[in-house]
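User: I'm new to structure prediction. If I give you an amino acid sequence, what do you actually give back? Let's try with this one:
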Amino acid sequence: MQLTGTNKFARIVSYLFDGSVLALPILLAVCFYDPAGSIQAQIIPAFLVSYFFIAIIPYSFILYLYKTGRVSDLQIPKRKERLVPLLIINICVILGFIILLFLKSSALLKTVYLIYLLGLPLISIITVFYKISFHSSYITMFSLIYLMVFGKWAVVTLPLIPLVSWSRVRLKRHTFGQVLLGIAVISAVSLTIFTVNGFLWSGYWAVSEVKEFFKNTSLYFKPSLPFYGADNPLIVILIFTLFFILFYKRQNLFINNLYRFSEESPNTLKEQAVQLFH
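Assistant: Good question. You get back a string of structure tokens that encode the predicted 3D arrangement of the chain. For your 278 residues, that looks like this:
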């Protein structure tokens, strides 16, 4: 693929928001950001174990496969090449969770680790039959977790979801359906686990803050977006995704028309010249 300016930007976005990169800011925020000041030193071993088994071991193995030529790209775009790396990643995540059970860690860290533990196998099973986007899954998980950690201030991470999704489609690594499925699957898994663990219904401060934020903003959006107003970040994800789809389709339509014009214009000029001299 010829790397135009847009493609270069899309590739940078893809690498910046890869799952291996996002694991560190996710775990740092979950383990060490605590407005109540109740963080204890025992959280450090839990953080190290989580990061080691979620990111260090799996992606070191992927790097080894890439260096030995067993996968063609670090981001493993070919679905057939994903099976062995995914098996190793899932084994690592399971082993890490078993060790984490014996360490002192916060309820939020265990909940986030459960999202990895249940979300990754589900996406891995889907990828056997359909090339679901891991990038859109990871960035959606990142945004939802940050909403739980930082409250309303993490709303600024929501536009990253359509941005990363756009980059994967732009690079022709995924289709719209594949990135949308990634968003939907990890959203369902994350919200289910947060609900089961009591974060969405127990008056958790971040959830209350985010709900209040969306209630307030709905007053401004209702005149132009009648369906807006649900105090749920998913509606914002859907809005951004809708704008992303419309923008991308309009961009493709323009490019296709431009290409068609460039293909037809020489013949048109030739016909005009023939008519002029005859």
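You can read the tokens as a compact description of the fold. Here is one thing that stands out. Residues 224-231, 257-266, 272-278 have pLDDT under 50 and may be disordered.
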